[in-house]
Amino acid sequence: MLSWPKPATWPSIPPDSSAEVMAKEKTILQAKAREKLFDIQRKPLPLEPSSLLREANRRRAFLSVGNLSELYDSVDGSGLGAHSKLSPNKSSSNLMTRTMSGPATSETSLPVDRPMRLSEIHVAAEHALKQTISDPDFMTSLSSPEEFESRYMELTKGAADNYHRSWWKRHGVVLDGEIAAIFFKHGNYDLAAKSYEKVCALYSAEGWEELLADVLPDLAECQKILKDEAGYLASCVKLLSLESSLFSSKERQAFQSEVVRLAHSEMRHPVPLDVSSLITFAGNPAPPLELCDGDPGTLSVAVWSGFPDDITLESLSLRLSAFSSADEGLKAIRSTDARVLVPGRNIITFDIPPQKPGSYVLGALTGQIGKLSFRSHGFSQDGPVDTDEFMSFEKPTRPVLKVRKPRALVDITPAVSSALLMNELQWIGLIVKPIDYSLKGGILHIDAGAELKIEESQMIEIESYRSDGEHSSPIDASKVLSRPTDTGRVEKVPIENGKIKLPDWASDVTTLVWFPVRAINDTVPKGTSPASPQKHSIVDGMRMIALKLEFGAFHNQIFERTIAVHFTNPFHVSTRVVDKCNDGTLLLQVILHSEVKATLHVKDVSLDLQAGFEHLGKGDGRPTSSLFPLVIAPSSKAGILFVIRLSGTKDLDELEQADSMLHIKYGISGDRATGAHSPVPVKPDDSEELLFKISLKLKRPVLDPCLAVGFLPFSTDCLRVGQLVNMKWRVERLKDLEEASLSDDEILYQVDANPQNWMVAGRKSGHISFSEAQGSRI
């Protein structure tokens, strides 16, 4: 307790003090050093026995170089451990410097006596203190360690309270650490832990890591004794996160062992552990990962581990935060790699499920060590990192993931818009065009609608495709038809249950997929005539095909579209009577209209007449001319002439029930890239000759009319909705009526009007009287 520096000459041993020396030596030998938690080793303090022994003997006499070995031999024999020895070179230089720098006294020239033992140094110092202290209370405080600690606690508490009251709180907290050491020594661990927590909080906030490294192990020991598992874990993590040079490798491994031991034990109150200061992470310095909407991906993240050894994690998850929002509502993404972190830098990959469009930054790293869950908000510096140990805790601003807004990734359109042949096996082409996206591994589902059948026994043809718009020479845009390249790649693939697997080479190029279908229509088509006109609807030949393309790395992208395909008969047939003779002979013209964009070759035609008509000549139903084969160009028409006459039947029911049937044997020459074409052969021996049947409704002409009926014009040229108008007909007798079903002077009339357009007021049917004289009118 003397003023510092110590006196140049250490006090000598008083006479008759041998008993005190023996008692002090016994006390020193019986004293046991407290075992430090984690087996932490520290450099000896200046007043520790090893330093005190050396310093006291140095100040007793002048030590020449020749006497150094004698002194060290004596020192080693004083009961000190091996840890207090110094190497001869280093020790000699330090001791010489200290000796020569001290003030010269008369004792420096005396011969070197035997070095004092530690017990003798204690006794000599105590006697010297008693001679310099006159205050009896102070003397009482130095009479025993218990009295000294009591006075020390009183003074330290008073000073700490004064510092806290004067707002010099940092000084007060430092003194709280001194008080905590006394509490700790006497086993009052609860109060010691509270004081240590204040000290550690101050040292940590100020960044005084060297001071924190001295106090934090004591706090951890208090928490361990008090079974404060959460606090003890946090202290161990904090010890690991301090600068590595403050502890030896063995000590840091002891910290990690405690963390792992507790993590795998049954904790009474498990709490999430914050390891932000120990485990940090950052995105790759490369550009952010870009994904399309709905796409999963793989994100690489650099994770730095501050543990001295490898540590096994039961799980490791990453949360992403939206760049434009502070919300952290995204689901945790689990790592797919082995969860063993090595000291320093680790590259961990995470499977990213589909996310909403936007930019994302790193949010938090969570995981599990044994049964203990942990969480880290420690972000490493954005951009390239030069060393594996560089860490910071600033929230990153550079996105690591960008999810694009929804856009078209692929387009599927029909290759042909013109009509195909009804009831025949035809190729349908689909243009599959990827839009800056790979279709590798894509599967195309084709679902044929009603009255449409896919022929799965045939192989599907897939070929590379380009449009005529890519030609360099100018072309009339109205005549441009998309068609496959002549030198493109072609591959045949099977179709199973309506599924087609696209080949790998077709993943990033536009392709044309051809598959055979047959449109089914069991209804016999009907021809038209001036007497029975019919409107042909294009909707009747429409067939729907539902398409679904599954593509993407995990078939997560879905493209769906329903396309309409037009099917039609090869011909539309109309009839008209070219001439009629008084003897009942008729010249019937059958007009064949081409309905397809292909050349039709008519090889033979025959007509089966309905009741009431018969053929003249051979009676085989053939036309009068034999100009077969008859070639009909696309969208053209041709006429065929038949000579028929009325037969003698007068059964009206028979006349109205049956229709005439026209049989046409034909062939077709067309390109599937344009429209209708020759049917796909199912068997090798299938004939290319096709048969088309159509019914014709023939009405017996009136060869000898008795009456003429004419419609008179309206009274006004402009008709309005809701206007009442009068409709008038004129009936004229052409000749005398020989046979009348009713009376000779009456005829039956009936008015038939379309109810959607007309509202008829008055009688719609009835009898009227009519004169029998030829030329009479009404």
UniProtKB/TrEMBL annotation:
Gene Ontology CC annotations of this record: cytosol; TRAPPII protein complex
Polar residues bias (residue ranges): 96-109
Residue stretches of biased makeup (Low complexity): 84-95
Species this chain originates from: Aegilops tauschii subsp. strangulata (Goatgrass)
Domain TRAPPC10/Trs130 C-terminal: 717-773
Protein name in UniProt: TRAPPC10/Trs130 C-terminal domain-containing protein
Residue ranges, annotated region (Disordered): 82-111
GO biological process: early endosome to Golgi transport; intra-Golgi vesicle-mediated transport
